[in-house]
Amino acid sequence: MRIGDICSNNPPSVATIGFFDGVHRGHRFLIDQVRREAAGRGLESAVITFPVHPRQVLQSDYRPKLLTTPQEKLSMLAETGIDTCILLDFTPHLASLTAREFMEVLKNRYNIRALVIGYDHRFGHNRSEGFEDYARYGRELGIDVLPAEAFAPDGNPVSSSLVRRLLLAGDAAQAATCLGYPYFLSGTVVSGRRIGHQLGYPTANLQPDHPDKIVPANGVYAVRVETEGKTYGGMLNIGRRPTLDNGDDRSIEVHIFDFDRDIYRKSLRLSFVQRVREERKFNSVDELAEQLHRDAETIRALLQAPHTTP
């Protein structure tokens, strides 16, 4: 996949446009349509996206809750088989363009011959315009504007906002169904309070690599842990450890099964399989330790089940 804001010698292409956070099943369904349309026309296929969320340009204090970092998104887009990813810097000038002016940029600068968009997709300064307006501008400019097929398995549309809501509610399993892969969080192992060692479940404390990437709801999760080129099962706790009077300090701690190496300052990737319970306060540390033992048994069984095998 070619990546960049290419200004000359662009091959004629069929494209679609969007932020593509998460590169979920709906995005992939759309990109498959673009690839098929491009192949049928003998053209290249392209995705037009933005390295920074457009709303951050318009609102400097806006902090997006991301499903994928910019680099993760590019890696996933490359996996779709698209020929080119055009990265547009969403500047105040770009935001001020009308839909027609923006489409002129697509035609003249990027050699877009056909544009596949959802019927409710909006771009350009005047958001009251819609598909029929874009189709009319396309006829004037020489761009075929084509309606995207809807992706709604079981009648339920898949969107990035839906996946965010699911993760923030702790429903990692349903989020994975929408994404087409388990949601993952990468980071570095940092020092902790070592309480897990005292309870018989030593943990690695994760500091996420990207401050804007979503951390799912508090609770105990079954996860897969990738570190140093190998994958292990793990029991993850996200929360404030109320039994231990941890205050407002929210931690991300994973106990890695059948693992005893020192990975302080090493990188980890957590893939969320399922939340097994919410975080709660126990009457004593001993009661917490007993619950952790039950959690570990539950999670080991979950990770060994056929439907959770990668």
From TrEMBL:
Function: Catalyzes the phosphorylation of riboflavin to FMN followed by the adenylation of FMN to FAD.
Record's keyword terms, sorted: ATP-binding, FAD, Flavoprotein, FMN, Kinase, Multifunctional enzyme, Nucleotide-binding, Nucleotidyltransferase, Transferase
Family, similarity comment: Belongs to the ribF family.
GO process annotations (BP): FAD biosynthetic process; FMN biosynthetic process; riboflavin biosynthetic process
Species per Swiss-Prot/TrEMBL record: Candidatus Bacteroides pullicola
Protein known as: Riboflavin biosynthesis protein
CDD domains in alphabetical order: FAD_synthetase_N
Source taxon at top rank: Bacteria
EC number per UniProt: 2.7.1.26, 2.7.7.2
NCBIfam families: PRK05627.1-5, ribF
A Pfam family it matches: FAD_syn
